[in-house]
Amino acid sequence: MKKIVALVSFVSCLLFAAACSSEDIDKATSAVRSSAERALDNASTAAGSIQDNTYVETLETQDATFGTREEQIAAAQKVCDELSGGTSLNDTVTSTADSTGLSDSKARTLINIAVPIYCPSNVGKLAGN
Question: What phi and psi, each to the nearest 5 degrees, are found at residue 62?
């Protein structure tokens, strides 16, 4: 009896799979991919928000804020681009001070906050800062 039930179940699965067109399978696969991509995008956005919030809040505690939140985040990204591109730390301090209106001291503070958060591969360039 168990063998008959198993055989009927197996045949039913085969008939169901045969009834599904490749278009149905493609739609289902596409839906799963889309859902997974949305989940990854949401996770990435959440991680970015945490990073941004940490950076901006730390700037505030060190009294190194200027402009809008977006401008503060853009300054951090510019710091990372400059340091990654080979610009010296002193030149990065000067350009950060010029573009943000911060003093050299506050620009250094911004850099010391931004680098570990946004571009930790550049932390070694902060030695002696």
Answer: -100, 10
